[in-house]
Amino acid sequence: MITASLVKELREKTGAGMLDCKKALEANNGDINAAVDWLREKGISKAAKKADRIAAEGLAAILIEGNTAAIVEVNSETDFVAKNDEFKDLVQVLLKTIVANDPKTVEEVLALPYEGATINDYLIAKTAKIGEKLSFRRFMRVTKSDSENFGEYIHMGGKIAVLTVVDGASSEVAKDVSMHAAAMRPKYVTREEVPSEVVEHEKTVLKEQAMAEGKPAEIAEKMVNGRVNKFFKEICLLEQPFVKDGDVTVETYVKNNGGTIKSVTRFEVGEGIEKREENFAEEVMKQQQASK
Known about the structure:
Blueprint: H1 4-14, H2 18-27, H3 32-49, E1 57-65, E2 68-76, H4 79-82, H5 85-100, H6 106-111, E3 113-114, E4 117-118, H7 119-130, E5 135-143, E6 148-155, E7 160-167, H8 171-184, H9 196-212, H10 217-235, E8 241-242, E9 245-249, H11 250-256, E10 260-268, H12 280-291
Antiparallel strand pairs: 1-2, 2-5, 3-4, 6-7, 7-10, 8-9
């Protein structure tokens, strides 16, 4: 006999509906562990139907434990779900798993064991429970030495997360750099990181602009050098005017505080993901038709 307390226990474990829990228990002769697997399989089916949806909302988050830190971006379809405690729990599990292990790729993280299954199984179960497509998009695991400091900054409740490592300077200085990076969106830390093809493309555009202004080719060439330096100051963190004191660059600010920047990792939720725009009224009509 399938008791109400057994159904309740399964529901609390999985978050599935009462009827689904009852069916799962009936299909597995009251074996709750087998019922969990049964619901997970059903969850896989549900998750598969969500595969073509676009998950461009979500959270960027950071966890620091000693000399190791992790920064992740996990996506959902709506901002509402991103604020859900179930979703936040998923983000924390991913962070702790990455810090505790040393995975190199998203696929390696998903294959790691968790509660008798894998992280991927856990993600699938959360997708079924929450009812939206969830996507573990990217991560970075960062380590530091004892002389170095982390500085983290989370903007807009997790829309942007920045993790900075400085050597010689304090964690407060590192946090200031993270705040600057969150606001100013540098594409690179140093000019050496800028791909040569990006620089050459910019030089070509700038030279054409100068010649369009009526400058001779040799003068245009000289003007390009100055304008390229301005280009680097716009896109390279170290060369940007520091947001709290525009009279110094970020590099000078850190140097004045006895340090150097070792690394900066900036994740902005949905960055680079093509978001599907739909008419709200049409979306409501689709949902009404689907429910008939």
